[in-house]
Write a structure and sequence with these properties.
Layout lengths: L1 H18 L5 H23 L3 H38 L7 E6 L9 E12 L5 E10 L8 E12 L2 E4 L6 H4 L4
Antiparallel strand pairs: 1-2, 2-3, 3-4, 4-5
Helix pairs in contact: 1-2, 2-3
Length: 177
């Protein structure tokens, strides 16, 4: 029993260490799945000798780990979106401002770019704007500088500007808004 707990603790520590690596979202996801598989196998070995039940426990642990990874990615994306909205909100139509975000959970690289307001959608009780923003990649020894552009909507929520697009930049974030 002690050996299994030690293996589980090592797997959790390894997954946590890997999660701290900058810009390693896929490695983070795979590590979480592997750690969950190890933990699920350890739990299943203590609970049952029935292969079907053990498989169910393992699949449940992996599913829970994947759901956790997707949740953390959604939080990172929401924080990025709201950071862009906070910069764009006060801008007049046509004005351009830089934005940047430093992720507290380093499962994705820190990002930066520019944002402009392309039009005001509504004013008054419901203030909303359409924005165009870029995600800029700095030049490296192997790649030239580049920018990708996206369109989104933002609306005022009290004093704060928030992301309002139902499907923001699907190409950029996929199903993980």
């Amino acid at each position: 029993m002690q050996f299994t707990k030690q293996r589980f603790a090592i797997a959790v520590l390894a997954a946590a260490a890997i999660a701290n690596l900058n810009a390693c979202s896929s490695l983070y996801g795979e590590s979480a799945s592997a750690g969950a598989g190890i933990a699920g196998a350890a739990l299943a070995a203590k609970v049952t000798r029935n292969a079907a039940v053990a498989t169910g426990i393992g699949l449940g642990a992996v599913a829970a780990a994947k759901a956790g990874v997707q949740y953390t990615e959604r939080v990172v994306h929401r924080n990025t979106q709201n950071s862009i909205a906070a910069v764009a909100g006060p801008l007049a139509v046509g004005a351009v401002a830089p934005w940047d975000v430093e992720h507290t959970v380093a499962i994705e690289a820190d990002e930066h770019g520019r944002v402009t307001v392309s039009r005001t959608i509504s004013t008054g009780a419901l203030d909303c704007k359409e924005i165009v923003f870029s995600v800029d990649q700095d030049a490296t020894k192997k790649e030239p500088a580049s920018s990708a552009f996206y369109v989104a909507s933002i609306c005022r929520d009290g004093n704060a500007w928030k992301w309002a697009s139902a499907e923001p930049a699907t190409e950029r974030w996929g199903a993980l808004q």
